[in-house]
Every structure is written in C-alpha cells, then in structure tokens.
Amino acid sequence: MKFLKPALFFLFLFLSNCLLAQNDIVLKTNGDEMRGHVTKINDKDIQFIYENETLEYNIPISEIIKITFSSGRIEYFDKEEKVSFQNLEDHHNKVAILPFGYIKDLETSNATMTKKIQLETYTIFKYKAVNLQFQDPNTTNSLLIKAGLINNNIEGYTMGEICNILGVEYVVQGLVSIERSTVTGFSNTQTTKKDHHNNAYVDRRGHIVGDISNNNRSNTSSFNTTTQNYSTNITMNIYTDKGDNVFSKEHSSFWQTEDAYKITLDFLARKTPLFKK
Predict the structure, then answer these.
(1) Dihedral of the alpha carbons of 91, 93, 96, 102, in degrees to the nearest 10
(2) How far apart are CA 54 and CA 36, in angstroms?
(3) How far apart are CA 233 and CA 260, in angstroms?
(4) CB within 8 A of 137, min separation 6: which ones?
(5) pTM of the predicted structure, to 2 decimals
(6) CA nearest to 33, candidates 168, 195, 152
C-alpha cells in the first residue's frame, strides 16, 4: 500500500494539470480570441483571467460574441446588443458584395483571391446598375470585422442579419471553383528548303540555252506539347435584408484559361435582378 500512495498522488497531479490546461475561449466582436478562464458573468460584463496569468479583467458583454467553455458548452450573446441595426427603410436600394469563396485545386486558403474577386464583382455591378448604390468593399469588410464576422464564424449569422449589419437591402455572395488539368500532346513540324541548280548559259545572240532546276528538300521534326487547362465554375446568390434568396445560379465557363472566372462573373451578373436596376 505504501507504494500505491505515491502513484496515486502523481496520477492526481497529472489529471489536475490536464484540467488546468483546458481554457475558456472568448470570441470578441473585433475578431480577437481570449484564452483563459471566465470566473464570473454579470449582466454588463464578464470577469476573465488570461492563461498563465493572475490579473483579472472585466470585459463588457457588448464586446463579446460567444464563450466556448472548457467543458465544451458554448454560450452565445445577443447580437442586437453589439450591433446597432438600422431601420429597413435606410437599406433601400443599397447593395454589398461579400468576399467570395475561392477554391483552386481543392485548396481554400487564398484570402487574397477572395478579396480580389469581391472587388471585381463590385466593379461589374457598379458600372452597370442604374438605381442602386453599391457599398465599397473596404467598407463592407471593415463592418464585417467590427461585428466579428470573420472566416469560421460568419456562418453563425443569417444573410438577413448580415444585411442589417452592413446597412444594405441586398448582399451578393458567391463561390468560385477552379480546377487545373494538364494535357500532353504530340506535334510534327515540316520545313522545306529549295536547292537551285543553274545549268543554263547565254549564247552569242543573247538567248538562254539550257535550264534552271529547283530541288526541294523536306525536314520533319517531332516534339511533345504540354497545355494547362482550367475548369471554372461559379455560384452566385443574392439575399435581401429579410433573409430571402432572390437569385441563385451556377454556371460553368466555356473558356479554359486561368482568368476565365472574370467572363463568367460578368455573365452571371447580367442574369441577376440587380443588373437592370
């Protein structure tokens, strides 16, 4: 029994350390994540201690989206306390373009392309629509970040809520998917060269006697060719501030170039009800 007590003590110590290592995670409206321990929750704020620290902080409830406790339980906070929703009348004829989803060769981590396609879509709509006011993408992205709508938590909101956060009547949302393929071919090239043989001479009267003959020589060369083809598919959706989906269409590009998505974006934009307004 004397040998079991130290073993039990070390087992208890190990389990205690494992439990202490688990953190509560506080997701704030500016996108920051705070890792540590929530010690108390009040009506107006929470009390929080960062991991490996002892100082206690008070965090206003208005700055918090959710808390994921170490137990796995998730507590969400009322979005209306953090976002001042505008009157729906103020949204009339205003449109925002969300950052597009982008998948290339099954990889989705290209944040630069999501913003690039967002800007290109904004440009297409802005110069074609007549009675609509399109929100600048920089403003859209800034409002999304301030509301805590970034990357993995944007799906926690409805499109109607996103419209209200952005202060618009419509949002345009989409996904661009590109797959690259390599095509290898075989090609022959034939070149012809003329050899001139002059067997003629001029007699005393100035006449040409004899002939001039041309002989052709042909050379054939063979080589392999490699071509990169791109298959492009785009899905575009439009939602209203009431959460209604008023347009949803998917289209595959006929063209096989890497930038074929630009032509397809323009094609889909022309099909939307916003394009003619």
Answers:
(1) 130
(2) 10
(3) 9
(4) 97, 99, 115, 118, 119, 122
(5) 0.56
(6) 152
Q: Quick one: pLDDT at residue 242?
A: 87
Q: Are strands 45-50 and 56-60 parallel, antiparallel or unpaired?
A: antiparallel
- Residues in contact with 45: Cβ distance below 8 Å, sequence separation at least 6, in sequence order: 58, 59, 60, 61
pLDDT in tens, 65-112: 888 888 878 787 765 444 444 455 578 889 999 999 888 877 665 778
Kindly report the number of other CB atoms within 10 A of residue 125's CB atom.
20
Q: What is the pLDDT of residues 38-63, one digit of tens each?
A: 999 988 899 999 999 999 999 998 88
Q: Is 71 left (phi over 0), alpha (psi -120 to 50) or beta?
A: alpha
At 58, which amino acid appears?
Answer: N
Q: Using CA atoms, how far apart are residues 50 and 57, in angstroms rounded to an integer?
A: 8
Q: Which of 236, 229, 262 is nearest to 251 (CA)?
A: 236
Question: Residue 15 is inside which H or E element, if any?
Answer: helix 4-21
Nearest to 36 by CA among 62, 57, 66: 57
d(CA 31, CA 228): 39
Task: Specify the DSSP element, H or E, that contains 263.
Answer: helix 260-271
